[in-house]
Specification:
Elements lengths: L1 H12 L6 E6 L2 E7 L2 H4 L6 H13 L7 E7 L3 H9 L4 E6 L24 E3 L4 H18 L1
Helix pairs in contact: 1-5
């Protein structure tokens, strides 16, 4: 999660919402990403989506069933759906998202029993640090107007 936090800080330096994600297979980081919506003009360029794409490309398969994603913010519905499509094995996230979280807060897409895959979830890892980074970013945006 500390590596994902470093990526989130890099996103903030790029004027992106500070969310970072890594995907780990065994002891190896196979993908890393941070939000790139502003830079790319792509509304799907969330850290989680980019990390999934990069992991699949690196492995040469879309099935990430033995992989774990670490991300600083609870995924939205789009990202949670992509995790199911990728058959991600496990998700570990930091800050809860009480407005758009889809891994337990607002929705719990990753554990719907009628879907063809469920993702194991661990939440609240380094929650205070992840939350502080986001809070500081949005406070600064409000001040800058």
């Amino acid at each position: 999660m500390r590596i994902a936090l470093g990526l989130a800080a890099a996103a903030e330096e790029s004027n992106e919402v500070p969310v970072g994600a890594i995907i780990v297979l065994g002891d190896e980081i196979i993908a890393r990403a941070f939000n790139e919506k502003e830079r790319t003009g792509d509304p799907t360029a969330h850290a989680e989506m980019l990390a999934i794409r990069r992991a699949a490309q690196r492995l040469g398969t879309w099935r990430l069933s033995d992989a774990t994603m670490y991300v600083t913010l609870e995924p939205c519905a789009m990202c949670a759906g992509a995790m199911i499509q990728a058959r991600l094995g496990r998700l570990v996230y930091g800050a809860y998202d009480p407005k758009a979280g889809a891994a337990g807060s607002v929705l719990d897409i990753l554990d719907l029993p009628w879907l063809n895959h469920q993702v194991k979830v661990k939440s609240g890892v380094l929650e205070a640090e992840c939350s502080q980074l986001l809070s500081s970013f949005f406070s600064q945006m409000r001040r800058d107007g």
